[in-house]
Amino acid sequence: MDEFFGSEYNPKSLPQRIDGVLGCAPHPTEVLRASARMLRASGLAFSREVEDRLLLAAGAIADRIDHGTALNPKKAAAFRTPSLREFLTKSGDLRRVFPQKIFHMLLSEAEVEAWDTCEGRGQTALFHLGALSGLITGIETPGWTSTRDYRWQIIGLCQYGSEEARAEEQPLMVQPDAVTISTIHGAKGLEFAGVFLAAVNANSFPNSMARRKPDLPLEGRIVEEIDVEGLADNETRDGERRLMYVALTRAERFLFISHCGKRTSSFIKELRPMVSESGGTVTDDSQQLLNELKYAPKEHLRDVRLATSFSDLRYYLECPHDFYLRKVLGFAPTIDQAFGYGRGVHNLMRAVHSDPKKWAALATNRPALEREIQGLIDHGLFYLRYTTGNPADNMRAKGLEVVANYIERYAGELGELTFEPEKSFETLVEYEDGEGGVLVSGAIDVIRRDNPPQVTLVDFKSGDPESDKHQKLDEEEMRLQVALYAVAAKKELEYQPEQGLVRYLDADDAMKAELSVPLNAAALTAATKLVATTAADIRNRKFSEGPKARQGGGARCSHCDFLGFCGIKQARDEKRGGSDSW
């Protein structure tokens, strides 16, 4: 783009924000240069060399997308990111792009790994980049992001992001060490340890315009039906008082209210005696306030209950820093065409176990069996959001094959027993220190009702697609997952799980198609303890460690979603070692 689009009158538009923050025209080159100067002034590492290389990369990416121009390999050698070099030098027409992948490549070229310190200014900067990563997932359109559409998607993202977007709440486990700036309306339903309510000034709060009857652009009978008077605040300003109540009650521990100007807000006059009577401080001496705050008890003792799932805990078990980038800062992984394959297979398996006898009866007639499975696929049970054409057809065919093979292999079981597919649960695991607990939610793929309340828990692994390899669990993690499901089945569903089975749907060898998981008391106790200690580590923000050792060896960093901009030691070593996979 030659410039960033937006209203010249709306202060929230991107051009107006650029002017207000950077003081330059909304042209990409000028914005990058001004941003680089501001980053350096704030203490973040962003050298002139990195600045020039990033500008060169942005131009080359634009040429590749807009005009299909491939870059000379010698010129592409100036870039540090292997995936960017491959993208720019690959010949042939470019039919589709992946916005998140482009974002990751630019973060790598910008060397933001130097900011990845889990503290201070760098953490705040990465938190905002993570929020942008979350917004980018919204333009990863279903089916096909064409090179023609991509430009307009970016324009739309820039306009929406600057004017309306809000960072998602962090409901999972921990809040980032960052300040949330919000309107009072935007803070409804949320709580914060400390709240600063600024500019409670005359004519501003309560708003002098709140009592004005709105002039609606309507006419006819609808005007008679609407209580226009009721849309304005009343004489006692109850609407504005309710808004003030919302603001005051967002604070859990500390509340600061400030005002300025010669005239004092009527709300400030009413609040002064209330604050004094409740033990607070009313003063125009900022030093006094700081001294009192310095000796105030900071800890707010309460049970801390965190909410998560095994899928999210798994990220921490494999690499605490991956969890930090993904779940605390909000970075989204790149999307590829195979996204959704596993969910599609699981949808088919849910349908099979919802009516097992029907499918067992079809097991001896392969053509009829495949026709029935194809019917499920045709009805939308194998939806692939990011894939079309031959790749999508190939994945659906693969899904049909593995499900048909499963039905043939386990026909006897399907014909004799009953099942509960995708049984959802929530279970509370207490911390060992007694300070709260973690609420773990999830869904058991299948509960096989052997002799209720004795049951077997079955978990499916869909298998083959290369894009899923970074999500595959080793045997230790699989045993933990099934044992955790058993804890939930016992506590919440009142079953007595006797065993767990992990079934690999794409295994050619029948001997390797199933992993048995013991669910005795020792296994359940060990699983509960590991979940509790893992959640406590997350609560205590232990994110500076790299990946844990994998069963059977092998480097996790080489296929991590965030290798290009991860600053952990193992990631830096992997990049220095010349890996071509990031």
How would you explain this protein's 3D organization?
The chain is α/β, with parallel strands linked by helices. The protein folds into 4 domains: 150 residues, no CATH class; 104 residues, 2-Layer Sandwich (Double Stranded RNA Binding Domain), CATH 3.30.160; 183 residues, Alpha-Beta Complex (Lambda Exonuclease, Chain A), CATH 3.90.320; 82 residues. 45% of the residues lie in helices and 12% in strands. The chain has 22 helices and 8 strands. The strands form 2 sheets. Strands 3, 4, 5, 6, 7 and 8 form a 6-stranded mixed β-sheet that branches. A two-stranded parallel sheet has the order 1-2. The radius of gyration is 29 Å and the shape is globular. About 2% of the residues have low confidence.
Q: Main beta sheet: strand number and arrangement? A: 6 strands, mixed
Order of helices and strands: HHHHHHHHEHHEHHEHHHHHHHEEEHEEHH
Apparent shape: globular
Counting DSSP E segments of at least 2 residues, the number of strands comes to 8
Q: What percentage of the residues does DSSP assign to strands (E)? A: 5-15%
Average pLDDT: 84
Just give the CATH class of the largest domain: Alpha Beta
Task: Indicate the structural class.
Answer: alpha/beta
- How many separate structural domains? 4
The CATH architecture name of the largest domain reads Alpha-Beta Complex
Using only C-alpha atoms, the radius of gyration works out to: 29 Å
Share in helix = 40-55%
What's the end-to-end separation, in Å?
A: 27 Å
Low-confidence stretches: 464-472
CATH topology of the largest domain: Lambda Exonuclease, Chain A
Number of helices: 22
